[in-house]
Amino acid sequence: MDLRTQWRSVVIIMQIFDEIKLLTIQKVKDEDGYEEDVTTERPVFAEIKSVRRNEFFLALQAGIEESIVFDMWNHEYSGERYLLHNDKKYKVIRAYSKDGERIELSCSEVKKNES
Prior knowledge:
Layout: H1 3-8, E1 17-29, E2 35-49, H2 53-61, E3 68-73, E4 82-85, E5 88-97, E6 102-109
Antiparallel strand pairs: 1-2, 1-4, 2-3, 3-6, 4-5, 5-6
């Protein structure tokens, strides 16, 4: 068996993981007693996925522009409502645990004037 034949029989499964930063936003009082938001970032790795066509159109009908899905380990997610990826801020629309081990975060991009 030559090298080309060997390579044809090999199946390569490739997943691309990227760093995302889960955002925890807490209200704290400053020294004057006024509340302000303090954001804490927690980096984790997630697989980047496309939004499924059906989900995209259902969300659009509800007035939500779903733009990206992040697939990550369930134990790393603590209910955060926002995250950062490639200098863009996203709002978590839906968190769906597929098998108890992995969770999909369906997100929409937060526009500059919305933050």
